Amino acid sequence: MGYKRVLVKFSGEALAGENGYGIDTKILKFIATEIKTLIDAGIEVG
């Protein structure tokens, strides 16, 4: 049995990617795609 609900927390470092500062749009798009996959599978994401 898998998870029904998950809580996601991001750090600035995780969003910065290789740049080391700011928000890397490639990283942000990847994370958004992964979250959408979870939602499409019926998992609540908070």
Write structural notes for this entry.
- This protein has 46 residues and is mainly alpha-helical.
- It has one domain (5-45).
- The chain is 46% helix and 9% strand.
- It has two helices and two strands; from the N terminus they run E-H-H-E.
- It has helices spanning 12-16, 25-40; strands at residues 5-6, 44-45.
- Strands 1-2 form a two-stranded parallel ribbon.
- It is elongated, with a radius of gyration of 12 Å.
- It starts with a strand and ends with a strand.
- The mean pLDDT is 90.
Distance between the first and last residues' Cα: 20 Å
**Which radius of gyration do the C-alpha atoms yield?**
12 Å
Strand content: 5-15%
Helical region count?
2
- Principal-axis shape equals elongated
Q: Would you tell me the structural class of the helices and strands?
A: mainly alpha
What's the topology here?
Elements: E1 5-6, H1 12-16, H2 25-40, E2 44-45
Parallel strand pairs: 1-2
